[in-house]
Amino acid sequence: MDEPTSGLDARAAAIVMRTVRNTVNTGRTVVCTIHQPSIDIFEAFDELFLMKRGGQEIYVGPLGHQSSQLIKYFEEVPGVPKIKDGYNPATWMLEVSASSQEQMLGVDFAEVYKNSDLYRRNKALIQELSVPRPGTKDLYFPTQYSQSFLVQCMACLWKQHWSYWRNPPYTAVRFLFTTFIALIFGTMFWDLGSKWNTQQDLINAMGCMYAAIIFLGSQYGSTVQPVVAVERTVFYREKAAGMYSALPYAFAQVLIEVPYVFVQTLVYGLIVYAMMGLDWTAEKFFWFLFFFFFSLMYFVLYGMMTVAVTPNHNIAAIISSFFYAIWNLFSGFIVPRPRIPIWWRWYYWATPVAYTLYGIIVSQFGEIQDVMDSGSTVEEFLKDYFGFERSFLGATAGIILAFDVLFAFIFAYSIKAFNFQRR
To answer: Structure pTM?
Structure first.
């Protein structure tokens, strides 16, 4: 019972505690927290578990007749004043064990209790009661959680489904934002996907794809962070209650983003692909959707990962914004890879956006043999200027997938290992 007398007058409180006492007299155990009890109510208890701020034990033992054992225990501490006749033992107990009194007396009541005979008797009793009686077995549960890992995953996924479905400021607004951006990019870069006679035409088409993935990706990564931060708070409570473990929660949090990102990728891909006039072949359209989908996914997963490794989404936003700027710089569009100084070129290969740009451009233009105004073919220009080769397309796709798996793994591990909850 949690403070059953709160808000009651003295008569009502006495009636409630008399009922509790009668319940105890039938042989049942009642654990009850109490706030500022009267003498009669306080002395109706058999035993007391008293803690100081921070959860440290000060007294764990019987009260005794008229709180005699409690009073004796505290009066034996050097410097503690004797209780006055008729004074409420509950009030006196709190006054003499207050932090200000500890500083004045130079004692730590938690240490006093740990060095007392009462503490040793309690530990011996716990040890004795922890041994099962002859012919009986101790309580045993084969697993920590009541349901299997698969059932936990399904339950968490179902919970996340409703959480996202009932959050239109996040899901619906992001969908409308994607559609709006697709229309802007499609009209601004109208029919550029079918033009590669000049280097500038080809670079303009690349710029559309590059700007879209940076712009949409950073937005996706930023908007998911407050959502994950709120969900993580709920996770702390439900995990502490033993409802499920960290991995099913992380699995559900990652998987619930997949259909939303896929629909947004499909809408953006159909609009922009048609407006830009890119080649309508099954292979090229598949590669376009593939790289765009998994690129948006690693942005989302990166945003989730930064929340999982930081105390709150504000710090996560600062960290992720810094890396978005670095990814932008080392993507290979602003400064092509062959022109990046050799001592920084290693970071190009560690930048996920670089593989996105590489994969989209090579899959769309990497095999074109038409001669440009510079005298070289499109394939040769991409290889000489950007360092893009069609033969590296499969490896690029694999690396993009690896980034998704890496960010998802770090998110899951961080959710399991780190706890930033503050009490």
So the answer is: 0.73
